Amino acid sequence: MEIEKKPHNLMDFPQHFRCPISMELMKDPVTISTGVTYERKSIEKWLFSYKKTTCPTTMQSIDNYTITPNHTLKRLILSWEGGNSHQSSPPPPPSSRHDELISLLNTVESTPFKVSSLKKLKSIIEMGDEIKQDFKRNGGVQMVLKIVMQILDENPDFIAFRACEEALGVLHQLSLSEEDEKTMKLFSKPDLMKAMAVMLQRGSTEARFYTISIFQKMVMVEFDWSFVIQDQGMDFFKSILELVSDEICTKASSCALQVLIEILSSSKKSRLKAIEAGAICILIELLPDSNRSKCEKIMELIKLLCECAEGRLGFVEHGLGIAAISKKMLNVSNCATKIGVKILWLICNFHPSERVLEEILVFGGVKKIVALLHIDGRSSTKDKVVKILKLHGSSWRRYPCFPSELKDYLGLKE
């Protein structure tokens, strides 16, 4: 059963949707040189039929008769009309700052003072989920993303760059979910990803944090990164690895680690690009001084990279790799120990050179994996330990520090 769509009266719609001349809901909003928006037919009649030379609202003299379509306001009006035409449950009530929000969205795209307007917009939507949903319902995401993508214009000026940074600050406040298909589709635009990659490389410290935090939200909803990796390549990973190494902004570093884990887990091609960008060296050198949470993430990344031949080669060629992994086993967490055993298993299985085996022994790796034999019951970690010792126990038992009682346990020949 269809419900008849009732005509709008003066109290049905937000005041910012009303033409100051006709007082009716605008269908084709346009902005004149004074910055005021009117219905096109009304302002054209005022200026060109009645030959007026002032702005009807401000009474300022008009020298420039250019009329500019206000696309943002038109999108807001269409979105509002669409929401009010559904015959199902009524739309959610507007937020407490609704009128102020609509006014900002109406002016931010056309105003020359975008930076200050975006800062104000950010302060409003920080106030809670109700306002954030109001922002999404009224086309705010589309408008802000458009500002971000202006950074891709040829030779963007400083103001455009700063506006992009502030726009990212607004987007940083929003949550993403797979259920919000409309917003996810907007975030999937190739040009947006290009713009955010530019900000990750060239933005301020704050803007880079905003960008990587948005990326973290995107990886948690299984975003497809294949285009970004293909388009940006090694530079994309260099920018993220630079944030991983950031000792000042620990939040940015933590976000960057999580983004890398999710991206590398889903694609071998991405691992090769990360290796090419120097990931193995950077991660190994960060590992010794990392806390528990950071240590587990770094070790997980090293494990993912060591699942590639190029990653294993980079690991064994780094002088601190085996020492760093051996030191963390049994000293951080069960998770770190499990990952450490997996890394040593990969190295022992594919790169069992005499130098590598000696380093594992000298830096305490063998002692740690022998201790893991005493774990009660069976586990995948213990199985890997037994396999490592059976593969290379005959080489290690020549050293006095190798436990002689393991000979029978492992079935080693004299």
TrEMBL record:
Keywords (alphabetical) are: Transferase, Ubl conjugation pathway
Entry's EC annotation = 2.3.2.27
| Matching Pfam families | ARM_PUB, U-box
GO molecular function list? ubiquitin protein ligase activity
Question: PROSITE patterns this protein is in?
Answer: U_BOX
Transmembrane is among the record's keywords: no
Tell me, what does this protein do in biology? Answer: Functions as an E3 ubiquitin ligase.
Q: Which PANTHER family match?
A: U-BOX DOMAIN-CONTAINING PROTEIN, WDSAM1 PROTEIN
Q: What is this protein called?
A: U-box domain-containing protein
The organism named in the record is: Actinidia chinensis var. chinensis (Chinese soft-hair kiwi)
Q: What is the lineage of its organism?
A: Eukaryota, Viridiplantae, Streptophyta, Embryophyta, Tracheophyta
